[in-house]
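Final report, Chapter 2: Outcomes

The project's central promise was a pipeline that accepts a single protein chain and returns its three-dimensional structure in a standardized token representation, suitable for archiving and comparison. That pipeline is now operational. To close this chapter, we reproduce one record exactly as it appears in the project archive, with the input sequence first and the structure output second.
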Amino acid sequence: MKGKKLQKGTVARVLRYVRRYWFSLILSILLAAAVVVTTLYVPILIGQAIDCILEAGKVDFSAILNTLGLIALLVAATALCQWVMNTLNNRITYNVVRDIRQEAFQKIEELPLRYLDAHPHGEIVSRVIADVDQFADGLLMGFAQFFTGVATILGTLGFMLSINPAITLVVVLVTPLSFLVANFIARKTYSMFKLQSETRGEQTALIEEMIGSQKVVQAFGQEARMQQRFDEINGRLEQCSLRAIFYSSLVNPGTRFVNAIAYAGVGAAGAFAAVSGAITVGGLSCFLSYANQYTKPFNEISGVVTELQNALACAARIFELIDQPSQQPDAPDAKTLEQPRGEIMLQNVRFSYDPTQKLIEDLNLSVKPGMRVAIVGPTGCGKTTIINLLMRFYDVDGGSIAVDGEDIRSLTRRSLRTNYGMVLQETWLHAGTVRENIAFGRPDASEEEIVAAAKAAHAHSFIKRLPEGYDTVITEEDGMLSQGQRQLLCIARVMLCLPPMLILDEATSSIDTRTELKIQDAFAHMMQGRTSFIVAHRLSTIRSADLILVMRSGRIIEQGKHEELLAKGGFYAELYNSQFKH
């Protein structure tokens, strides 16, 4: 019952997308009717031509030639209408697909990071790409055959009734069997095609994971285990696909069997009617042609129904993504953060990714404008979590974070994040030129500004050695650049923007010691007058910080300057000394 309700809701949503192109839809329906009328009129003309052959030596060739000429004209008109109708159907289908993909991609940009962190990226990609493609195939077949099929059934029924109502009754009585067969199969296949789409998404997620971590898999010799995982998912996909295809394959033979019964009934009834003189031989020929055309759409529509089950199952997965709640929107009266001084206050902050596992509890911190705050502590203590909260990638569960006295929840996210410059340990470069990657935060930056930022990040020298210099095209996973060079480009990106507040999360973790010393000088210059948060494992890089926060289990257990913390001989001193033991 729940699946049936979901299916009806999916159909209604698809129709809402189609309704945007109502003019093309109506024109396509009218053309489908024209195709049916011209197609169904041809058997009448053929029957008339047959009746012109009275007996041996008595053939009206003039009438036959005129009839054949009219048939040729109708066939040409039918072909033209069919071509225009198919063009319109293609346009409607791919416009709908484009709209759904745009909405899905927009939703991904609006989704909270909590959702993206909890779902495999490959599975989300599968919904937007593979499922939409499957939906397009089913929708296109529906447009191509459904309209003409229904119109053909109604048209042939009308023509048959005009020729001989009694014989028509034989066809009509057998018709419900086709509907029963199609309905039975449709109910069976929807859930199977939905399971097939879900399993395909799981497989895509595993493949994407494997491609991204192939070096690690090979380094630990886990190829066989990964192959085993893939084979297990592939086996499940095979099973659910075979079941779905098996039931869908029953459509054609099932409806053809029913149609053969109808055709045989028409032939027998028509033969008796012709012998008794109730119908001419030409009329019987015409009637048999109509009986065949009447039953043929049931095969096509049944096939369309099966494809539509697959399409609707895929559409349901896409709509499930689109219907995910977006991140909490900015308040209608949200303020724009302009030229902040950089005073940041955390009061009684409480946050956890999983409600059952506490992480940050009652965190308090006051940062004056221009201060350099270093955050240190063991893995999992909450260092990166604080960064996520400062940038409002996640909202606090309790307490507040304020910038210049304004709660960040009362500010627009865009203005808040624009005033932060962030360099993460995990580098991200998009497909494009080196110049475009550096200017990602300021697309309107001049060439001189881009080069100056690259020089400040000590990236200019290796960029000039690339094949096309700043015009060299790189990709997200480009092997042309080392991890350290990729990090330098990310640093140059921030140096070009020079926002009033900075976040450096292990920003020099992939850089050699010699270059790191140069970068530290560049950072020191960049941080002057700017509130900065530095997350670091190498404690030697934060000795000059104005304030060092030592975290453990989501709490600040020590804070102060480097010398003060060493003199205390506490946890920080223990961490620091452990890095310099010989």
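Archive annotation: The domain at 344-578 is CATH 3.40.50.300 (Rossmann fold).
This record, like all others produced under the grant, will remain available to the consortium after the project formally closes.
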